[in-house]
Amino acid sequence: MELDVVELSRLQFAMTALYHFLFVPLTLGLSILVAIMETVYVMTGRPIWRQMTKFWGTLFGINFVLGVATGITMEFQFGMNWAYYSHYVGDVFGAPLAIEGLMAFFLEATFVGLFFFGWDKLSRVKHLMVTWLVAIGSNFSALWILIANGWMQHPVGAEFNPMTMRMEMTSFFDVVFNEVAQAKFVHTVSAGYVTAAMFVMGVSAWYLLKGRHIELARRSITVAASFGLASAISVVVLGDESGYDAGLNQKMKLAAIEAMWETEEAPAPFTLVGIPNQEARETKYAIHIPYVMGIIGTRSLTEEIPGIAELVEQAEGQVRSGIIAYDALMTIQEQMQDTPADVLETFEQHSDDLGYAFLLLRYVDDPRNATEEQIVMAANDTVPHVWPMFWAFRIMVGIGMALILINGYFFVRSSFKGMDYPRWALRLSVAAIPLPWIAAEMGWIVAEYGRQPWTVDGILPTALSVSHLSVTQLLLTIAGFALFYTVLFVVEMGLMIKYIKKGPTQDVAVTDEWMTKHEHRLRTHDGNVPEFTPAE
């Protein structure tokens, strides 16, 4: 029954998290693209750029609202579905979440209103400042969330207090500048930029195929292709940094991604494709690329990457060390201030492995009574499911490479071919709109599924983190979330499609302003001002 509660709690959080991340990358990327477009408008005064800013800003606003609604739900789940997790690490995990709400979200939400309703009340420069503050707030939100998540992947700047039975922060600096968190931030944000670039490019390509809003679409593709190419390349480069960090701090995750069952001679090859078999601990029909994984994981040609079998053996030793720490902890809890110095010293020596003793609570009420067989079982539990990890990573990488090629092609056509695009390329761009979302979701599966069986890597097992809920309660809430989120998805898609079909509206105010400024340049020989469209 407890295992059912754990799995259902994981399912619910995974469902809401993956759904929420449908909106996050587009919000991150569109906020920057809209700010770039308005910057060009302020610099040139050309009406077409204001029209572009308003149009793509409207789509940003729709997406932003849905992202906020789904994000709030996730934060409530920490207290409702993961109560012991919140109690155990709340002193550390809660800090970046609180800062995100107070600093980033309020900044973002406040200036979103000024963005939409301040066009006729603010000067051009002031409105541009508002737009950039919206973009900065969006990215700061991602920063603090990913700092919190990065700490779960690589818990630094905190230590366990045996008196309070909780993790307590020892260095806020170490938490904020955690190398894993910083790598995750730049990688995730770059992926969001690619997502927005492909969205803008795909919608603009659809307009060109339909022969509508030609000037807006061509300029939008030019901006999106340049922005998207730079971002897609950075995703690959920064993804390499994440792989290196995993090789340093999450060796089991890296071994599972590669389905590396045994430690191989350095430098390890990269398995391009294959069929992992976790029970037999082998990968059938594997195609290897020499040296690549060794370079990614260690950035050297001489350092080994440990395989799953070796890491399980290490985990078994950590489980045994954790039992010693658990025994000392129980003594500390019983005697508190009167605890002998040698017991405290013993705990300090083995406290880093305490979490591995907690893995035994799945099999025995008291880890000190664990059998040899149970210790081996707990060590084997440190291996995540390899098959989904293996393929999620390869799907993500494959899509990433395809996005570089697509953005690169449109960048060349925009820069050197007069913004002339073949119809097959436009159709490809429309069809490719979902690809960045698929890659991003695969990336989160690799990051979060690969951390199992831990909620906080090496410290708190997932099985201990959940609230005392019933299976019925979880099934009802999962069904409720599924229904509610389906409705939200229909609303989101309906609004997006409606405003995309409607297209940009003619901006009368800016047309008149631009006409007055440039009237002397537009007059014909007979002194009349010709009719023109805002794009002209």
Global structural class: mainly alpha
Overall pLDDT score = 89
What is the end-to-end distance? 68 Å
Low confidence ranges: 508-516, 518-536
Shape: globular
Q: Count every helix, treating DSSP H or I runs of 4 or more residues as helices.
A: 19
Order of SSEs: HHHHHEEHHHHEEHHHHHHHHEEHH
Number of domains: 3
User: How large, in whole angstroms, is the Cα Rg?
Assistant: 27 Å
Oligomer: single chain
Residue share in helix: over 70%
Outline the biggest β-sheet. Answer: 2 strands, antiparallel
Q: Walk across the major sheet and give the strand order.
A: 1-2
Strand content: 5-15%
Total number of β-strand segments? 6
Report on this structure:
- This protein is mostly helical and 536 residues long.
- The chain folds into 3 domains: 2-250 and 388-502; 264-305, no CATH class; 309-380, no CATH class.
- It is built from 19 helices and 6 strands.
- It has helices at residues 2-20, 24-44, 47-80, 83-117, 124-153, 172-176, 179-210, 214-249, 251-258, 292-298, 308-335, 341-350, 354-358, 372-380, 386-416, 423-431, 435-449, 471-502, 508-522; strands at 158-161, 166-169, 270-277, 282-289, 454-456, 460-461.
- It starts with a helix and ends in a 14-residue tail after the last helix.
